[in-house]
Fold this protein.
Amino acid sequence: MIPRIHKRGSETIGLIRYLYGPGTHEEHTDPHLVAAFDPLAPDPGRDPQATYGQLQRLLDQPVNALPAGRRPKKHVWHLSVRASPEDPVLSDEDWAAIARRMVAATGIAPDGDDAACRWAAVRHADDHIHIIATLVREDGRRPRLHNEARRAQAEARLIEADFGLRLVSPGDGTAAKRPTSAERHKADRRGQQRTPREELREAVRLSAAGAASEEEFFDRLAAAGLLIRRRIAPSGDTLGYTVALPGDRNAKGEPVLYSGSKLAPDLSLPRIRERWTKTSDDPAQEPAQPSVTGPASARRRASAAAWQALLVVDQGDDGVIAAQIAAAGEVLDALAQTSAAHTRRELQAAATAFERASRSHVRAARGHDHALRQAARDLVHGGPALGRGEDGATAAMVIDMLIFLITAAAHWHAKKQHAQQAEAAHRAAEHLRAAYQAAAEYPMALLNHRGRRLAPAWQRHHSAAVRQALPELADRILAEPGWPALAATLAEVQAAGHSPATLLAQAAARRELGTAERVSDVLVWRLRRMAGLPAGPDNSQDQRARGTYAVTSPKQAAQTGTRLANSSPRRR
C-alpha cells in the first residue's frame, strides 16, 4: 500500500472537481465518498441533490472563519492511498477504516481530537482513495504535520499487516524523488511514457558513469543534448548545475530546469565529485594498464574488476562495500549504453532497477572503487559491441560475473535490513540473467558444438578432470546442457599448457558454485578468463577442438598436466 502526500493547494473546489470528475482519460469510475470528518457530509457522487460547492464550503468553514490576513495561502492538503496490484479489491468500509487511520496517523485528525481538521475521503477506482483536508483546525489553530509523510508510510505498513495485504518494503529516504502528479499529467498529455524528471535522471546518471573529471561529466551532458546551466561562484568555481530537456518548457516558454539533487540524492555536484576521490592505498590505482582497444577488451577488464569487487563485498568494510556497489551501478549503466541490440533492453532494465540499490544510509567510501569506475570508463570509450565474435562472448563473460556481484550486493543489503535496495538488486539480477541468456546463446552454441565433436577418449579425460577437481558437483555439471562447452574449454585450457584439474579447482575455490543456475557456464567463463583464452571460439580452434594437440593421447596429456600442475598456471 502506497500513501503519497501531494503538493498543498489553495483551491479546495479545484481538487474536489478533479476527484469527482472523469479523470484525464476517463479513468475515474463511480466517484463517491467513503468517509469524512462528519458522517452527514454531502456526497456529490451518490446524492443528486449534493453539489461540489456544498462540500467545499463545509471543508473550508474553519479557514473562512479566520480573518483574511491569518488564512494560510496553501490550505488544501491531499493524500492518495493506493493498494498494490496483487492486493484484493477492498470494500468501501475497508477504505473508510484506512482513511480514518491515515488522518489520525498524519496529524490531520488525531483520535479523540474533537477540534481536528475537516477532511473527506473519495474513492473513484477499485485500488485507491484520495483524502482531502483543510489545514485549519476547528479551534483556529494549524495542525501539527511534522514528518507526516513518514508517519503515513509507517501506518501503511501496519495496515498491510492488519488487512493481509502485500507487505511493501519501507522507505529510508534515499530513493530518488518521484515525479509529481502535474509532471505525470503533462507527460500523459504529450503521449510520453516517462516524465522529464525521469528522462533527465537517466541521462545524468549515464553521463556520470565512469566520468573521470568535472569537465568530462559536463561534456557528456552536453553530448546527450541536455540544456545545462552552471551556478558559478565569484571565484569562477562551479557550485552546482541544473539541466532541462530542450522541448520541456513552462507556460512562459522557459526551460523547466532540475538540479541534480532534485533528480536523485547522489546526482548533486558535490556527490558526483566524490566519485573522483583518490586514495593513496588503493592498489587498483597503482599499475598503469594499457588502453582498451575495443568493446571486447573493455568487457574483459570489467570482468576482472567485477571479480575484485566481489571479494570486497564478501569481506570488506561497510563504507568500502557501499562504494563498490555504487560503482557497480556505473558499470551497469556503461554496459547498457554500449550493449548489442539483442541484450540492450534487459541490460537497461537491470541498470534502471539497480539504481535504487546503489544508495543507502551507509555512506560510500569513495576512492576504493577505482577499478570498477575505470571499467565503466573503459566500456564507454571502448564503444558499442556488435554482439558477435569476441565482443559478444566477452559480454556473456562480464554479465555472468556481474550476476554474482549484484547478487552479493542484494545479500549485503538484506543483511543490513535495506529492504528496498535488496529488492531492487534482486530485480536487477533477474534482468541480468535474461541478458546473459541472449548474450551467451551464440558463443555457448559454438562451444557446445565443439565439445560434442571431441573424441570419446578426450571427453572421458575431461570428465575425469571434473570428478577429480569437483567431486561434489561433478554429477550435476556432467548432466548440464553446457557440459560440452566446458569440455571444449578444458581442451583449450590443456592445449594452452595448463592442467585442467588444477585450474578447475582454482576456479571453483574463488567462490562457491552451489547457488549458480548453470555451474558449467560459470566455469567456462572463469576458466577462459583465468587461462587468457579468447572468450569466443574462432575457426582456428577447430583442429584443437577435435583433440589434435601436441600431446596425442589422454595418457600423455595427463602426464603433461602433472608437470604443469607443479608450475604456476598463467593467469590473466
The longest strand covers residues 76-82. The chain has four domains: 2-163, 181-276, 283-448, 453-565. Residues 283-448 form one domain.
